[in-house]
């Protein structure tokens, strides 16, 4: 369980770094830069919330995890490799948006809110809010993309 939270918080912090890196790459576009910085802030907050979950009394709070560790590890690797790519080769605005949408969509499926079975209802609500946050991220990114480029299919 704790290992699961470790990988999850690592993914959230990597997402935060990815958005910071993207914000820097699109700094000529103030509106998009602001959007990316807001997303970076949200991901930093997600990482903190997952770290909080890690230190809760595990057997009283959670019943189990619905997804395998390898799937999470794969996603972490993917996020880390995207971060490296962005560092070596700053993306265009279009590329940054597409990559961010792709990663957010994949992550929604393994989010703590959806992947964990909670015993505590309040905790469940708290983490499903976190998952909704990332759904909003996809919505915001898609809306921006559609306004300036052709719609994502
Ligand atoms: Fe997140
Ligand atoms: Fe997100």
UniProtKB/TrEMBL annotation:
GO terms for molecular function: metal ion binding; oxidoreductase activity. Pfam families: Rubrerythrin. The lineage of its organism: Bacteria, Pseudomonadati, Thermodesulfobacteriota, Desulfuromonadia, Desulfuromonadales. This is Rubrerythrin diiron-binding domain-containing protein. It comes from the Bacteria. InterPro entries: Ferritin-like, Ferritin-like_SF, Rr_diiron-bd_dom. Coiled coil: none annotated. Residues 10-51 form the Rubrerythrin diiron-binding domain.
